[in-house]
Amino acid sequence: MVQIIKDMNEFKTFLTAAGHKLAVVEFSSTWCGPCKRMCPIFHAMSVKYQNVFFANVDVNNSPELAETCHIRGIPTFQMFKKSQKVTLFSRIKRIICCYRSGVMSNPIFEFCGADAKILEAKIQELM
Questions:
Q1: Active-site positions?
Q2: pLDDT tens string 37-59
Q3: How many domains are contained in the chain?
Q4: Is cis: bond before 75, omega within 30 of 0?
Q5: pTM exceeds cut of 0.70
Q6: What is the CATH number of the domain that holds 49?
Q7: pLDDT higher for 46 or 107?
Q8: Which of 42, 45, 93, 113 has the highest CB neighbour number within 10 Å of its CB?
Q9: How far is CA 78 from CA 6, 26, 123, in A?
Q10: SS in 3 state form for 14-65?
Q11: Closest alpha carbon to 86 in 5, 9, 18, 6
Q12: Is there a contact between 81 and 17 (Cβ–Cβ < 8 Å)?
């Protein structure tokens, strides 16, 4: 299920509820064509990945939240764990481990665009 986030308080509550689990937040708008294409895919992923928290923020209804999260284009997907955006620095231990085992992954933690394959691959990587 995709939770609709309308303001910063709801956003903080959502991230707190996710705890150590992956939280994926889609920033979109109802007028955006690529957002409309991603909407049913994003909802299907929320059913498929029951151990991941999914939310949507309409940037027109929540411009302050979009600005706080540095949204420059839509759709944008951001990943969070422990109420913090997953970043290169928060993943440093994993990267070192992967480097030692000879496997390096691309440290993307946010992307803009309607590519369902990239979104699903990133969810699987960060779960």
A1: 32, 35
A2: 999 999 999 999 999 999 999 99
A3: 1
A4: yes
A5: yes
A6: 3.40.30.10
A7: 46
A8: 42
A9: 16, 7, 10
A10: HHHHHCCCCEEEEEECCCCHHHHHHHHHHHHHHHHCCCCEEEEEECCCCHHH
A11: 18
A12: no
